[in-house]
Amino acid sequence: MTELTRRRLSRDGLDRPPYLAATMRDDEMTDRICVLGAGAIGGHIAAKLGAAGVDVSIVARPATVEAVRRDGLKLRSQGVEIVAPVAASDDPFALPVQDLVITTAKAHALPAAAAALAHLTGGKAPVVYVANGLPWWYRYRGKGANDGASLARLDPDGSLWRGVGPEGAIGGVIYSSNTVTAPGEVTHLGTDHRLILGEPDDSLSPRLAAVVTRLAPAGAEATDKIRTEVWRKLLVNLANSPIGALTRLGGDQIAADARLRPIYLGLYREGLAVAAAQGIHLPDDSEARFERMSRTSHRSSMLQDMEAGRPLETDAQLSAVQDLAREAGVPTPTLDILLPLLLAAAAGRQ
Ligand SMILES: NC(=O)C1=CN([C@@H]2O[C@H](COP(=O)(O)OP(=O)(O)OC[C@H]3O[C@@H](n4cnc5c(N)ncnc54)[C@H](OP(=O)(O)O)[C@@H]3O)[C@@H](O)[C@H]2O)C=CC1
Ligand SMILES: CC(C)(CO)C(=O)C(=O)O
Questions:
Q1: Ligand 2 atom closest to the CA of 175, numbered from 1
Q2: Which of 135, 130, 57, 52 is nearest to 90 (CA)?
Q3: Between 60 and 17, the higher pLDDT residue
Q4: Minimal-distance CA residue to ligand 2 atom 2
Q5: 195 has pLDDT over 60
Q6: Counting CB atoms within 10 angstroms of each CB, which of 27, 71, 137, 336 has the fewest?
Q7: Per-residue pLDDT tens for 240-285?
Q8: Is the pLDDT of residue 38 over 80?
């Protein structure tokens, strides 16, 4: 990386002590935003919000909380390091009710976070779900035959649907390559950064407009076709994630290996067919997508999880797609081979 320009940005121009949300006066906290599950993506979003003076707190794991309380939340992006003084806690129940909650926890971590989300929203505040893969609320106010229930794969005991409620859900799709390089420090690779938000009923509601305005410092934009955006991104993950996690290769290395090309194209095209069975018709840009990976050395978040020994996001990115394919009678031969290989490889990690 080129020499970093260090900027120390302080919310309200004050050097506030680290984590204060629970002790702040109510009149100081009129526009509270909390990011639950702040790792690579949540850290990126929270750092940009904090640097812009937004009153943001994060709920994160203890090592992150300790680092952020001590040193602030760091984001290295395009040769600049932002150090944002965001509040941090590993106990969501110590936080007051928020005006807006963003979750960037992986799909498999969400059911366990349902009670925390319910507490943070106070039953009122919207929750922006930013994640790869199919979301648990996919069948809320959609137009499909099975509308009106969670995707069972992603909300197996219904704790999200019943405990948090789909009414508060705002869908989020993100294009941004990030890695946690140290606790409380996120490195953003390249220049791409898009955060696309949409209502499950596809309306351009006043609520959506308000949320997009609040999250503008983090690059938010609105869509009136959130499921189309979910699929557009999911196709990329469906093809890239299993190949990357199995081979341990970054984007440019995958693109340089011609043997991987038909596997990538196969996965992508199977995803296109499943999306089409859902009424979402996207152009076949699989070849261009494959070539485009040569531009980035980013190691996918699933590969990062594979290497760190963490659970993989296979349910949201792969198994839920296979579920929809089976429901619709769409063949997915490439996915059907790679998914068991990936699950076995993940299970066999030391
Ligand atoms: N990284 C990237 O470049 C990209 C990621 N994405 C997607 O964004 C989403 C987030 O990914 P990413 O940021 O990489 O993931 P990370 O694992 O870096 O961040 C998620 C963090 O949330 C923590 N967490 C989970 N549940 C809780 C909880 N209840 N309370 C506190 N902390 C919690 C996790 O801890 P623990 O691990 O201990 O559970 C982890 O530290 C995923 O869906 C991913 O696929 C999309 C585009 C690019
Ligand atoms: C690789 C990338 C940026 C796009 O596939 C991604 O979404 C991830 O890391 O999970």
A1: 3
A2: 57
A3: 60
A4: 300
A5: yes
A6: 27
A7: 999 999 999 999 999 999 999 999 999 999 999 999 999 999 999 9
A8: yes
Of the residues 301, 306, 313, 317, which should be mutated to test ligand 1's pocket, given the most ligand atoms within 8 Å of the CB?
Answer: 301
Task: Please report which ligand is nearest the Cα atom of 290.
Answer: 2
Quick check: do 5-223 and 230-347 share a fold?
no
Nearest CA to 21 out of 74, 97, 78, 73 is that of 97
Domain ranges within the chain, ordered by starting residue: 5-223, 230-347
Active-site residue flag, 106: no
State if residue 104 touches ligand 1 by the CB under 6 angstroms criterion.
Answer: yes
pLDDT at residue 17 greater than cutoff 50:
no
Q: What is the pLDDT of residue 144?
A: 79
For the record, the structure tokens of 303 come out as 């590969």
**Phi-psi group of 297: left, alpha or beta (phi > 0 → left; psi -120 to 50 → alpha; rest → beta):** alpha
Note the pLDDT tens digit of each residue in 43-58. Answer: 999 999 999 999 999 9
Ligand 1 center to residue 9 CA distance, Å? Answer: 25
**Pocket residues: Cβ below 6 A from ligand 2:** 132, 177, 236-237, 240, 298, 300-301
Q: What is the CATH number of domain 230-347?
A: 1.10.1040.10
Q: Would you state the CATH architecture of domain 5-223?
A: 3-Layer(aba) Sandwich (3.40)
Q: How far apart are CA 150 and CA 154, in angstroms?
A: 7
Residue 102 alpha carbon to ligand 1 centre in Å: 12
